[in-house]
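Weekly structure sync, notes
Attendees: PL, DS, HV (note-taker this week)

Item 1: AAA+ ATPase domain-containing protein
DS walked through the input record. Source organism listed as Sphagnum jensenii. Sequence as pasted into the shared doc:
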Amino acid sequence: PRRGVRGSFVPPVRGANGSSVVGAVGTPRTQGGADNCQEDSTRKCMELLAGPDGQLPDRLRNLEPKLLEHVSNEIMDQDPAVHWDDIAGLEHAKKCVTEMVIWPLLRPDIFQGCRAPGKGLLLFGPPGTGKTMIGKAIAGEAKATFFSISASSLTSKWIGEGEKLVRALFGVASCRQPAVIFVDEIDSLLSQRKAEGEHESSRRIKTQFLIEMEGCGSGSEQILLIGATNRPQELDEAARRRLSKRLYIPLPSAAARAWIVRNLLGKDGLLSLTDAEIESICTTTDGYSGSDMKNLVKEASMGPLREALMQGRDIGNISKDEMRPISVQDFMNALQQVRPSVSESELGLYQDWNRQFGSLA
Ligand code: ADP
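Item 1 (cont.): predicted structure, written out as tokens:
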């Protein structure tokens, strides 16, 4: 039986094999507790996936419950909670994505025949530029269920089972339409490097993935596949063909960097810099990605705290009001610690690939 309102709390601890075991600390009900919890979670997951008749849809019946559960609990995100307004810059990409994929997901009846959308979208560009955020925002704006998986975890973590997990992923997505499947590092799955070195299991995962992609591209399924990569040049021709819309997500412009600084500091009530000061920060951060900017703001925001502690304040009782506002100097100091993560030469590669294969080039 489940723990009642008055039952004592049994803390979850890591099992010997790294799995999460509930209540393994010396209670007689230890094993039963873990089993019950597992059963409970499996039952909830099956309920979630059941059709109106209370039965699992045909497509899911032959799949292992543990994989369905993993997809439902770890890969599916019911509320991605990112909106266009949270993403700085990238106006052109947002506009294209809205037309190419959001409208078709919202109005499948209009986007048929010659208006039928492609089912695959590739977002490529340097790391930390908002590709994952765009994926989540698409799902949010299109009111779609969001599934997010890293392709490298399929090939490394799921050895022997990756292929089945791919089937479970597309199977669950087909029961939760409209759905957006976001595959990060898609290059590691659909790379052109293969032949002798490739493991049999990776090859099978790739084949299964291509079959599923083909399946969701045909017929009336409302499943959009979004692949993201920092290494588009690794993708083979078959992958490029299936990901027919290919959008370059570049480094943020100075205006977008300013927006990120303002937004992050403003959210925490820490914005005391003038427009001119923010502009000066942005001119010195050319080449920084969105995620570099986030790290820079984090580092700069430590300045006032470090200074107050150096002046003898105690971390145990210092109040927020006792710290001075964040200054441009804090940002200048932070610039020594946080360097841009993308080099000029890498940028050249993205631009070349965009000219050759990008949809907006
Ligand atoms: P990618 O998927 O391109 O590697 P992410 O979307 O995961 O990058 O972005 C990482 C983090 O960097 C985000 O959580 C966000 O804080 C910040 N970031 C990156 N790009 C932007 C952007 N255009 N607007 C706002 N924040 C951004």
